[in-house]
Amino acid sequence: MNFKSHLDQFEVFAKVAQAAANLGVETYVVGGYVRDLILDREKKGPKDIDFTCVGSGIELAKEVAKQFDEHVPLSVFKNFGTAMLKLEDWELEFVGARKESYRADSRKPVVETGTLQEDLERRDFTINAMAIALNAGNFGELLDPFDGLKDISKKLIRTPLEPNITFSDDPLRMLRAVRFASQLNFDIDADTFYAISQNASRLEIISGERIIVELNKIIQVEKPSYGFKLLFASKILHQFFPEMVELQGVDSVDDKSHKDNFYHTLQVLDNVCQTSDDLYLRWAAILHDIAKPATKRFNKKVGWTFHGHEDKGARMVPGIFRRLKLPMDERMKYVQKLVKLHLRPIALVKDEVTDSALRRLLFEAGEDIDDLMKLCRADVTSKNNRKVKRYLENFDKVAQKLVEVEEKDQVRNFQPPISGEEIMETFGINPSKVIGEIKEEIKEAILEGKIHNNAAEARELMLEIAKSKGLEYQNYPPKS
Length: 480
Known about the structure:
The chain is an alpha+beta fold. The protein has 24 helices and 15 strands.
């Protein structure tokens, strides 16, 4: 197979080839660019291209930079023997061919100069161990020493070397195997998958930061449930996410069983993926029932219950985020909020739902109300199609009622019309507990619909509340 016609379309390959000829070094395009070219996977945005040469990658990068008339930013990483050039539409990385060996207690390799064959065999999978030559004698020719092309045709993830060696050397490759299988909708070769299960505990030497990068890539595919099933079956998930593993299984007492919450969670995740690309809405789907194992109880009258799992789940979110090296910022709080509120809209599907209940949900969900409704819709996973249809139609009614209440009362993320400073100024008091009590009563009155969400009615109520508490105003100028 020859890709000369493809390479000829882009000036960058000709310039790299010329630079390589000037230095007299064999040079090849390797890795993901080759794989995606064969798979005809168009990449949006800048294209990342890896080049390997039998020589110094840094010197080659410097020579390539000279081929361009304009200044090209060059980054050199001497410790790794690599260099990078950034062009408008391309990010080019250069490295010399190398071979690697590993110590048992580390994933940091001992790197030595090697041949192209040795460079390709150290790569993770056969589909990533192909090269396209940029040399005058074989420009555009595909080199495929490990049958990566055949594995692409079979839709198979397989290691170039014996898989136990590949995964023992670099355990992160086990997660990458699942990630590529998920992204490409490929199977994992039987021997490769067995080696993953045998080496799962080796993940202990991998940092949480590197694990979460791969896990998030799995979560961001079109149907992430496939990847999670592979993680579970291989016991990889058990190494870093035991709370999710505990969701799996069904208990039965007196012929009463609950659903398998692991597979339910995966269905909710897939459902969310049909409506949103947001990574943290997907995390909310993963964690929405995370506390069910801890709250599971059996009642002879009603069967299995999980009372309070939404509140306990919300309390669990920060600890899980911290351990998995997920961001401890507004994104964590967003997930925590959705986990805590995910049952609330279900209680509002009745026709007689009050405006007060709708106002409270709008107030608590704020700008995340639309995402909350997406999560709630995704949470309907019954195999009874008529039941699913009925629930979704009820959610449509709730969504419409929420719109009507919001237009009328404007309580989504509303700020109290009366501030603590105004209360202190009006009654001539210092910061104290009573200020919070007055603000809370005003908020409750608005949510209950006793007063409208405006400053005039709120101030009038403030005076009534203050009077009942023995306060008299001292400085209350008229407000517009």
